[in-house]
Amino acid sequence: MNILGCFIGVLSALLFGGWLAEWLAERRDRWRYPAPGRMVKAASSQMHLLCSGERRPGEPLVLLESGMGSWSFYWRMVQPAVAQFARVCAYDRPGFGWSPPGVQPRSASRIAAELHEALQNAGEPAPYLLVGHSLGGIFVRQFARLYPQEVCGMVLVDSAHEDQLERMPWARKEAQGISFTFTFLAILHRLGILRLLGKSLLSRFASVKTEQEQKLFLATLLSSRYFETSRDESLSVLQPLKPEERLASLGDKPLTVIQAGGQPETLPRGYTPERWQQQRRAWDEIQQDLLKLSSNSRLVVAEKSVHAVQVEEPEVVIAAIEQMLRGINHRD
Question: Do the beta carbons of residue 195 and residue 25 sit within 8 Å?
Answer without folding.
Answer: yes
